[in-house]
Amino acid sequence: MSLEIDRVSKSFDGKSAVLGDVSLSVEDGEFLALLGPSGSGKTTLLNIISGLTAPDRGKLVLNDEDITSVPAARRRFGMVFQSYALFRHMSVADNIGFGLRVMDRAERPSKADRKARVEELLAMIDMAGLGDRYPAQLSGGQRQRVAMARALAISPRLLLLDEPFSALDALVRRDLRRSVRDLQQRVGVTAILVTHDQAEAFEVADRVAVMRDGAIEQIGTPDELRARPATPFVESFLGLGP
Ligand code: ADP
Question: Model-level pTM greater than 0.90?
Answer without folding.
Answer: yes
